[in-house]
Amino acid sequence: MTDLTGEVTDLLQHLIRNACVNDGTPGSGQEFRSADHLEAYLGTTGMEIEAYEPIAGRRSLVARIEGQDPEAPTVCLMGHTDVVPVSPAGWRRDPFGGELVDGEVWGRGAIDMLNLTASMAVAVRHLARSGFRPRGTLVYFAVADEEAGGHHGAEWITRHHYDAVRSEFVLTESGGIVLPPGRCVTVTTGEKGVAWRRLRVTGTPGHGSMPFASDNALVKAAEVVRRLVAYRPRARVTDTWRAYVEALGLPEATAAGLVDPDRVWDTCASLDDPRFAAMAHACTHMTFSPNVIHGGVKTNVIPDVVDIDVDIRALPGDSADDIARNLDEAVGDLASSVSVSILQQAEATDSPVRTQLWESINRVVPAFVPQASLVPRMTTGGTDARFFREKGAVAYGFGLFSPEVTYEEFASRFHGHDERVDVESLRLSTEMWIALVRDLIG
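^ thats the sequence. predicted structure below, dont judge the formating
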């Protein structure tokens, strides 16, 4: 096979330098910069290419290699082009420089997920230029606005132009980590649900010079925050989490504790690795993270209204009633002073593992990671895969990272300082996409 490492490295550097930073406001992102670059990169191959732009600048790109057999499945390689904001002072290098240093490409989006967006594009271009005529259709989807919920990207397109991306199988971010000692490779088969809530705490206004026995909404809000942080919801162990723990090869007592609903909280607390403990807790519990607070009008006025924005993540099977019940239990006797409104709601989604796509990945991976098997996992964050699962597609998070990118490294770089990816991971992902597409629909 032609060595595509230099090509995918160069494309990733360009995507990083485009700095499509999505801060959640409609005018941010400006993903047209990367959409235009990708269109120019893919446009010489003869593929059908369409751009979609629901509001100015928020452009997504769809490229297709049409299949020859109408009965064969369509597979979509989906990568987002937006990235989260940065705090440059925390970086050792320019977060939008795309520098190649000691075999690693540095920059915001290198891990999340411009590495995969670039490797998918290079793989599709290579297939198209080689005259690839698949049985099924291959779709490349470079999508805007993933980092702020997909409203101007995957959500909009699947609602208004679904035929452009309609697929039986979808591959996107958040998988492909080789677990030590190299026996297993992760495939993300599902994700927790987003259930952001605003808790409005009310009190009675008064003069700040006389606080004794006052009905201060901010004081009550502080207690609500304390209770949310201290709250211990009931644990639930899913089959996916059980399989993931089994694949890790942990000490027997630790593994047993992590899959026992009665012991998983205490087991998480006993772990030496704080990142793994946080993931283990999140994969077995509904979580509550109070992250934003608004309230007060003036230093000498006792506030009567304070809003607390809480990031709640629900497990598959958790209902809106379950969320409300847990909030009531957490807040306790302060419930009469608290009203709850929905900021964002998306159900947890997952895909089965007994699928044609799973079997294809299982056939391809050993050529890159000898004797490795696949292990399903659930991501605690959200991805655009959910929009396709809601349409009935099988959607996995995959890719292929080198053993240098451990889960701990992956987690620390994801939305973190000094984000970077090694060029070996870029090579592996690119070659894996080519092999997988050929196996699945070639």
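The first strand starts at residue 48 and ends at 52.
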